[in-house]
Amino acid sequence: INDSNNFFARYSLENSKQLFPNALLSSTDPFGGGSGKGNTGILHGQSLALNYIHTFSPRFLSETRGGFTRTDYNGLPLGNGNPLLNSINIPNQRYNNTIQTIPTFSVSGLTAVGPQSNVPNYSVANNFQGSQNFSYSIGSGHTLKFGGDFIRRQLNNDFIASAPGTFSFSGIYTTTNAASSAQNGDAVADF
């Protein structure tokens, strides 16, 4: 600005989308299944940094800094909102418009079908930071510095552990003697 005042500002913006496929994701099975994350991640990030230096005298100066970062993450299950979901008729499956995918079906000994848990995940993280520092040069190579720093972190996280539901079949209902592990049932028959 002038000989006694210096100002700096920076703004950054990021928008990205990532697909984390899993073993059974295909054009005929948009909901996927099997091992792996199995979701789509949409990330919006932005940051602002400000720095102001004021020189009171050749021996005394002030530095003021401010910063803000925001990360907005939307993790959606595979097949979220896919039109094929309308052809699957499970009672009470679509109890709100946020959850637009099939439940997870897990049969012991077979590959599971359906999304991973903890999606949909809508998370917003905000970080606010400010600092004020003063420097005073005493002379003879000695400088005295003092100041303060303020940081506020905020996390708003909205996710559902198993939003569309989970159906697990382990063979417990076809076990001859539930108290004995020697007589295992048939998970496929439970299904």
Would you kindly provide a written description of the structure presented here, covering whatever features stand out?
The protein is mostly beta strands and 191 residues long. The chain has one helix at residues 187-190; strands at residues 5-20, 39-57, 60-77, 104-107, 121-139, 142-159, 166-169. Strand 5 (121-139) and strand 6 form a beta hairpin. The protein is elongated. The termini are far apart.
List keywords for this structure.
191 residues, mainly beta, five-stranded antiparallel β-sheet, two-stranded parallel ribbon
Instruction: Tell me the number of strands.
Output: 7
- Strand order of the biggest β-sheet: 1-2-3-5-6
End-to-end CA span = 73 Å
Major pleated sheet: 5 strands, antiparallel
Radius of gyration: 28 Å
Judged by helices, strands and strand pairing, the structural class is mainly beta
